[in-house]
Structure formats: structure tokens, C-alpha cells
Specification:
By secondary structure, the protein is of the alpha/beta class. The protein contains 10 helices and 15 strands. Helix 4 packs across helix 5. The chain is globular, with a radius of gyration of 20 Å. It comes from Dentiscutata heterogama. This is 12558_t:CDS:1.
């Protein structure tokens, strides 16, 4: 723990804007609830091909009527600074747009009604054009059933010289997921797939955030061949989980430093899972924390390079030197 406390807030200033990752494109999310992330994005911007601020929610208000909320968070000065050229490359700002508060009927209308599809495509493409974005990241449930909508949105954005990145849930026994054939099919009109290979464990089944063998299985499940594999952006969590007596809490860097400073735990490495963890007690309650370390980050970067996938990082934080 002492080396973590000593070095957690340090980084290689000479390497901060050099992309060292040898795989595919890199995307990094920035969230409004972590304002420090906006500053970190500026420091490390040369390492990313895409930066996705988590700004927008999509609401269906009535027939053919859609409303976007979150536009008040758009910061054009920050976008300009992020998008400035670094070593001949431009970072594309592609905000995330997430379906919010949708009912099953709302989804049914978008699946079956052509006018609904056209209305939402126009709403999203107009916002991207008006704000000057490089495209967007789309997150929605039932994405497998929204092929027609995704196809039309992709075509519209491409006409505007913008890109479409689709969020995909990881392969789990209890979760519907794309087949490899569907991945190849959607690849015709999607520029990238942000695969959420994290949150493997829960309060019911405490454990690692993203066992490395499971991450590798996801790569091979979606892309058993190398065709379109470069469009797979392998998810990497830059946060940890704190499990205690049936509870689970997401924790970020500042919180874990406080815990380590207070409890000075023994930090252990699980070779099979490829993650570090430690235990501590607070008010008599035992806790187990799984958190990404430099070693676990490096091993996943190596996995992505070996398979020539890209990366999607949730969310921008400490530990970016290796990227």
C-alpha cells in the first residue's frame, strides 16, 4: 500500500499525450459527476481517438416526439481544447446518448413504426450537426431489436461525416447478447462497439470486476474471426467495487486512497482472475475491495493488443500512462 500512497497521483508528463497502445481505436468516457475527469481528459487527450462525455438522455414524450436532456452540460470551449490536433491526430468528441425512462411500449413503437424511427434519427442527427460533434455513442436496451433504427441513424450520421458507436452489454448467462453473425451484420453501419466488459460481479456474487479469462471469452464470442474485430472496443473499468455483507458500492480513486491510507491493508493478486483485491474492517463489518491496478490494466492492454481490438475506458481517471 505504501507505493500506492506515494505514487497514485503521479504520471509521466513526457508521455502524457503519446498513444502507446498498439491495438485499435481508443474511446474514453467522461462523466459530469467527476469534474476532475474533464481536466484529466485535456492532460491525456493524445492517447484517445474518441472522448465521450456522458451528457445526453433521450426521452420519448408522445407519438413521433422526442426530447433530449443534458444539452446544458455541453462545453464548447472544452470541446475545442480536446479536439485540437495532437501529433497529426484529431480527437473526436462523441457524446453518449442514453435512452432514459423508456417503457416497453416506447421501444415497441420504435421497432415497428417507420415514422418513429425517422423522427428520432432526425432529432439525434440534428443535435450532432448543430453542436459540431464528431458523432455519438448510443446506449439503449433491446439493441438487437433496433436494427432498422441503428441502420438509419448510422447512414444519416455518415452523410454528415460523423460516426456511430454502439454500446453493447457483455456476454453473460443471464443477459441477451449479440451473436457473432449479428455483430458482423451491425458492423455494416456502425463504426465501433463499446463493449461493457466490467461489472462481472454483484452484491449477490461478490468478486472481481472483470476476470481476464471472461474478457477474453467476450472477444472470441463476438469476433471469432478477425473480420470486424477492429471495431470492438474492449471495455476497461477505471473504478473498483467494495463488497460488504450483501452490499456493493462503486468506488473511485479518491475513495480507495482514503481507505488504503486509513486501513493499510495487505493487497493480494489473484493470478487466475488477473486482479488485485484487499480486505478491511469498518465498524466491525468486513469489506472486500477489487480495484484495477497497474498490473491488471497492463495485462488487459496486452490482451487487447494481442487480439487487435480497441478500448473503451469507463471512465477517465488515474492510471492512464500505459495507454
Amino acid at each position: 500500500y505504501d507505493s500506492i500512497l506515494e505514487n497514485h497521483n503521479k504520471y509521466n508528463t513526457q508521455n502524457a499525450r503519446n498513444k502507446t497502445f498498439q491495438g485499435g481505436p481508443t474511446l474514453a468516457y467522461v462523466t459530469p459527476w467527476n469534474n476532475h475527469g474533464y481536466d484529466i481528459a485535456k492532460i491525456f487527450k493524445g492517447k484517445f481517438d474518441y472522448v465521450s462525455p456522458v451528457w445526453y438522455n433521450i426521452h420519448r414524450r408522445s407519438t413521433n416526439q422526442y426530447e433530449l436532456t443534458g444539452g446544458h452540460d455541453v462545453d464548447h470551449d472544452w470541446i475545442k481544447e480536446i479536439s485540437d490536433q495532437v501529433e497529426g491526430r484529431h480527437v473526436k468528441v462523441v457524446p453518449r446518448f442514453q435512452f432514459q425512462g423508456w417503457t416497453q411500449m416506447d421501444y415497441q413503437m420504435l421497432i415497428t413504426e417507420l415514422n418513429e424511427v425517422d423522427s428520432l434519427v432526425n432529432t439525434l442527427s440534428l443535435e450532432c450537426r448543430k453542436q459540431g460533434f464528431g458523432g455519438l455513442v448510443l446506449e439503449a436496451s433491446y439493441i438487437i431489436l433496433l436494427r432498422n433504427f441503428v441502420m438509419k441513424l448510422g447512414a444519416k450520421l455518415h452523410d454528415q461525416s460523423q460516426e456511430l458507436i454502439l454500446v453493447l452489454p457483455p456476454r453473460k448467462p443471464s443477459t441477451p447478447y449479440f451473436t457473432a453473425d449479428q455483430f458482423d451484420d451491425f458492423s455494416q453501419f456502425v463504426d465501433g462497439f463499446s463493449l461493457m466488459t466490467y461489472d462481472y460481479s454483484s452484491h449477490e456474487t461478490p468478486g472481481p470486476n472483470a476476470p481476464i479469462n471472461w474478457v477474453e471469452d467476450n472477444i472470441l464470442s463476438f469476433t471469432p474471426t478477425t473480420m470486424n474485430r477492429g471495431k470492438l472496443l474492449l471495455g476497461m473499468n477505471m473504478y473498483g467495487m467494495d463488497f460488504s455483507q450483501g452490499h456493493a458500492e462503486h468506488i473511485t480513486g479518491n475513495t480507495i486512497i482514503k481507505i488504503i491510507r486509513q486501513h493499510k491493508p495487505i493487497i493480494e493478486w489473484n493470478e487466475n482472475l488477473g486482479e488485485h483485491y484487499f480486505r478491511y474492517q469498518e465498524n466491525g463489518i468486513p469489506h472486500t475491495v477489487w480495484y484495477p491496478s497497474l498490473k491488471s490494466i497492463e495485462s488487459r492492454l496486452q490482451l487487447a493488443e494481442d487480439y487487435d481490438t480497441g478500448l473503451s475506458i469507463w471512465e477517465i481517471g488515474q492510471g492512464l500512462d500505459y495507454f
